[in-house]
Amino acid sequence: MSLCEGVLRILEEQAGVQNYSRVRRVTLEIGMLSTAVPESIEMCFGAVTRGTLADGAALEIVRTPGEAWCKKCAASVPVKERYTPCPRCGGFDLELRAGDGLRIKELEVD
């Protein structure tokens, strides 16, 4: 619920900055390693936005893969879960680079 409330706050702030009065569609990008649960966000989005500038807006969720920098391989490697070894060398000296965030990717507004 709080993630959806945060998204709504951003939409309302940007409405003042970008001069729009209605949100028709929101595309959220959610990393595969994020703790955000897409099904929960889909369920809460309609309740949180009811009676706001985003009331009735379509919600699209795009999942993005995890990626880390392996210091031993000196390369970016795909990561499916946190705290798993490098798929190339089996080492654990990984620096997470992508796939753990949530962001508003696109908006369709009036």
Question: Please, could you describe this protein's structure?
Answer:
The protein is an alpha+beta fold. Helices cover 26% and strands 35% of the residues. The chain is built from two helices and six strands; from the N terminus they run H-E-H-E-E-E-E-E. The chain has helices at 2-18, 38-49, and strands at 23-31, 58-64, 66-70, 75-79, 94-98, 102-109. The protein has a three-stranded mixed β-sheet with strand order 2-1-6, covered by helices on one side. A hairpin with a 4-residue loop joins strand 3 (66-70) and strand 4. 15% of the residues are buried. The model has no long low-confidence stretch (mean pLDDT 95).
Any key phrases for this structure?
about 110 residues; alpha+beta; 3-stranded mixed beta sheet; 3-stranded antiparallel beta sheet; 6 strands; about 35% strand
Task: Give a topology summary.
Elements: H1 2-18, E1 23-31, H2 38-49, E2 58-64, E3 66-70, E4 75-79, E5 94-98, E6 102-109
Parallel strand pairs: 1-2
Antiparallel strand pairs: 1-6, 3-4, 3-5
Helix pairs in contact: 1-2
